[in-house]
Design brief:
Layout (H helix, E strand, L loop, with lengths): L1 H28 L1 H6 L2 H53 L11 H6 L10 H97 L11
Helix pairs in contact: 1-3
Keywords: Coiled coil
Pfam family, one: Remorin_C
Protein name: Remorin C-terminal domain-containing protein
Length: 226
């Protein structure tokens, strides 16, 4: 698109230069004729020339704006397509599941050696394949040992945490029981004290009533002992 704009600019500039050359050559060929033209003709020629320049400038500006808008639309559509592609890839992302272990299939497969008649090459191939298989078995054994050790350690940690939780639960339960016992003891003592106070007050009231009866007091308000 930029090349097209440049070509349009070149074509317009060539057109203007051609017009200037033609006008200059005409002026040079017939000077008397130019003197015969009146001032209004010169004004109209200048107006037409300025109008042509303005039209060319407007056309170039329009082409530039059109090219810029097309480029922006293309970039926007490209970004939207890229975002949609990334979102679809994110949606299709595989879950982190435990991969399958093909070690059994590889370990159990038999070594196939294609003999070519050269016993040295066959022996070398067999030795190399056996060496590779032994290396694989050793690495597989190391991985298996590491896996079992990590699993055993994780299990021990879980058991230890479980044991600690059980101990904490037992200790908390014991604290709870002790707290309940202290509450019962305090409540029982307060209840017993309230009962003793009530009995003492009742005893005092009964003794005073018996004394008033023995003295023949008809109204308690006249009794100075009350």
């Amino acid at each position: 698109m930029e090349n097209m704009i440049k070509q349009r600019r070149v074509s317009f500039s060539e057109l203007l230069q051609r017009d200037n050359k033609e006008s200059f050559s005409k002026d040079k060929r017939s000077p008397n004729w130019c003197h015969q033209r009146n001032s209004q003709d010169y004004v109209s020629i200048d107006d037409e020339h300025m109008a042509a320049i303005a039209a060319a400038t407007f056309a170039i500006h329009s082409l530039e704006e059109k090219a810029i808008s097309q480029f922006q639309r293309k970039e926007k559509s490209r970004e939207e397509a890229s975002m949609k592609t990334n979102m679809s890839q994110a949606d299709k992302a595989p879950s982190f599941s435990r991969p399958s272990r093909p070690r059994e299939a590889y370990a159990n497969r038999s070594l196939s050696i294609y003999g070519s008649g050269n016993t040295k090459v066959d022996a070398w191939e067999k030795a190399k394949l056996l060496k590779i298989q032994n290396r694989y078995e050793k690495s597989n054994l190391t991985i298996l040992q590491w896996e079992n050790e990590k699993k055993a350690r994780a299990k021990r940690r879980v058991e230890e945490k479980k044991k600690e939780l059980e101990q904490k639960r037992s200790i908390n339960w014991q604290h709870y029981q002790n707290k309940l016992a202290r509450i019962d003891h305090v409540a029982g003592g307060a209840r017993s004290q309230a009962e003793d106070t009530t009995r003492n007050h009742e005893k005092k009231v009964k003794e005073r009533a018996r004394e008033m009866r023995s003295l023949g007091v008809t109204s308690p308000k006249y009794c100075f002992l009350c």
